[in-house]
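Lecture 7, part 2: worked example. A protein chain together with alpha-D-ribofuranose.
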Amino acid sequence: MRNIIIDCDPGHDDAIAILMAIANKDKLNILGITTVGGNGLLDNVTKNALKILSLVDENIPVASGARRPLIREIHTGTDFHGDSGMDGPILEDPKYEIVSMNAVEFMYEKIKESTSKVTLVPLGPLTNIALLLKTYPSIKEKIELISLMGGGINVGNRTAAAEFNIYVDPEAAKIVFNSGVDIVMAGLDVTNKAMIMDDELEMLKNKGKISNFVLELLEFYGKGSKEFGFEGSCLHDPCAIGYLLRSDLFKGKMYHVDIETEGTITRGMTLADKRPVSERDKNVYVLLDLNRKEFVDYVCECVTKV
Ligand code: RIB
Ligand code: CA
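Predicted complex, written out as structure tokens:
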């Protein structure tokens, strides 16, 4: 059993990742969910997280976090995810409320009181994680791993150089990537390949209200994906959870990765040191490939059993 905290900005793909974790309670013990401004404004993504948990009757504690990046102005993904951050499905108002602590204090308390090390699963900008590591540096000893969706060592999406989560708060990402904590990076190198195709959505039809919710998420999300030139819907965030559950479906390589914070056209770039010989320590396991079909089947199997 792995104790995890999911830090997210739901977010269509965040929602699917959360459902995958809930579907695997025998493997993942979700200590809590924290939210960060990204796909939508903080209040919206926090409400979305509460709505998702209300839909599946899971009263997992939710703590809201950073409204904006450490230094820069907030940059949202509403152009892709809609004004609510998770447009498409119509969900009832949440029946749960957020906890009184903010995300950083909440994560600190949960990690400190955990009887075993905790895995952090950031699925949005890394502002909360950076604040945690800077405010409570000693907490690193209780963090097993950071399995994050973000970056890309060969491609960007918000810009030619940078993936959205890293682009939004490059300074936070730099703190996290240089923290010394073990990192698995589910970046665009693998998540752009983790596409569910339109004909595969059949696996979600008439399988109950949760898979129907996922179907509605992907129907909305798929429109944006196609506008960005993709044949199917990229299951970005599910890769960060998927790796914890089925690492056998993924392939990757260790690299030294650092974050560009000074560049104008390279702001938020995750630069991997690919030189055959380098003095830099290899700090990140970068996911590069996956068995797409098996992964898609697995995601659908998970969400149909929630
Ligand atoms: O670039 C993809 C990432 O940005 C995903 O986490 C998605 O939810 C958005 O936050
Ligand atoms: Ca996300």
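The chain has a mean pLDDT of 97. Residues 199 and 232 are 9 Å apart (CA to CA). Keep this in mind for problem set question 3.
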